[in-house]
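== Sequence, structure tokens ==
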Amino acid sequence: MSEADNAVQTTRVSTQEADVGPGAELSEGAMGGEQEEQVPHRISSLQRYLTTPVTNIQTAADARESMRRKELEQARKVRLEWLENDVRSSQEKFEEITKGWSMAKDKVTPRELQEALSGQQQLCALLVENKKKLINDLQQELKVGDDRYVKDLRKQVEELDLMMERMEDQVKTLTKAYREELAQLERVYQQENKVLLITDKKERHQLLKKLWDEELERLAQRKKKVEEYEAKIHSLMLETIDKQSVIKTEETSNFQVLEREQQQMQGTNMIMRLKQIKERDDVETHKFNLANMKSRIISLQAEKKNLVTNYMSQVKQFRTKSRHLSKDHKRNIQQYERIQKTKKHFAVADARRFDEMWLTLEEEVRQLVERALVIDQRICERHLGLAWERPALPSSPFQPKKPARTPDPQPVSQLIHTEQSSQCSQGTTTDASGGPGSQAEGVDADACGEQTAAQSESDAWESEEARLSTEMKVMELLCDETGFLMEDQLLKMLAPLEKQGPTSVKLGSLLSSLGVEEEDLPKLADFLLTYQQQQTKVSSAAERVSIRTSTFDQAAAVETNSDLIHPNHVLPALKSFLKQHMKSRLDDPSLCLHLHVIWAVCVCDL
């Protein structure tokens, strides 16, 4: 390490920092160039000097490895000689043993056989001892080789550690030397840059001053020339303007004369040409109009014939189509009546099934309540030692009655009869006239009669359908607004059903609880609609504005039913209907209770 430090010290270059003049700075720049040339030589010598300890370790390790390989080769040769000698000796002994066995076959007496056998055993024991001795020698040599290998490994590890230490020292010294050389070079370059900067600044100032003086002289000369040129240009411009004005006046006068003459010639020529063109156009237009009128008359006649034939064919098609449509209409009406009957049947069956399920569930609940009361009595009397009183059980709020049915639509057979009569009255409209005009008039009369019959039939059907739809909407709104009168269990059971199923069941339960019969259902719907009309007549404009500006959520929820009756008027209308039309049934306590509840809700809404 000390030798490496000395080598590094030799590479260092001391610098003196002091203020010197330009000449001294130039000399230092020359010295810096020489130092730059000497730096690679010093670095290479330092690298060679530092790599020698590492290479010495490597050469020593290589020499040791070559010696080890020679020793291993000699040991291998010795082992081979041992093995060859052992093979020869064992072969000889084996031959003796085989000869002894062949000689033992010639022996006859047991004593001779025993002696031959003992001799053979001794030879075999000697052969086995020799083999064991050889094995022991080989194992001993193997153990020695293993010990030597472990020692070599340890020594290699030590050499590697030493090599790593020397390499780290080498790297450290090289980095230190590189840093010092780099710092020295930076200082030299900075000094050179300072010197060059000072000299360049002086030269730049001198050149700028010289250039500035030359530019000033050029500007003065240019100003003089510009003034001279401006005076010349001004004089020339005045001369050219005078000349151009004179020439322009002469040209304009000549041009006006020529233009006047040309316009006179063009006017005469134009008048003659227009007269000729007008005469020619009149002749051509007359010819064209005559040809157009003839062709148009022919085309209109052909078009008239086509229209008459098309009209007759369309009339026939409309007749056949109207007959088919009337048949389809009859069939649809019959199908609708069958569907209404099936709906009524299933509604009654569903209501009956619901009543049965309700009663069975109520009976099960009553049994469970009895069991719970018995258990409570035993706990109070046996375990707590208290007197037990049977609590009052509430009565069932549900009394199974006939479920309310939706009103039957008017029999649509009347529509069929009216349609048939209208179709029969149309049979005498066509007459057997000769010309196409009379046929067209007969066809028009038939078509008009069929259209009026179909229109009346469709109007009757639409009015009936509209009445049924309005009644259904009013009933749905009534069920929605009076949902608080229904049982929670009923609402939970109806929640997973579709839209039409819960409405019919809710309506049946509501009407049965209020005591309204099936025959009174159309009266109730008409009363609700008339009540809405009365309320709208009585209410003032301010109330209408307040109703319109009510919450947007309620208006969106009853968008389809708000035109029929306002949701806030449903409960008062129901109350007034029950008071007017159900006076004979007010003795029922459940109905009175429902009326009181409706009255309380109306008061809260107000």
Q: What stands out?
A: The radius of gyration is 67 Å.
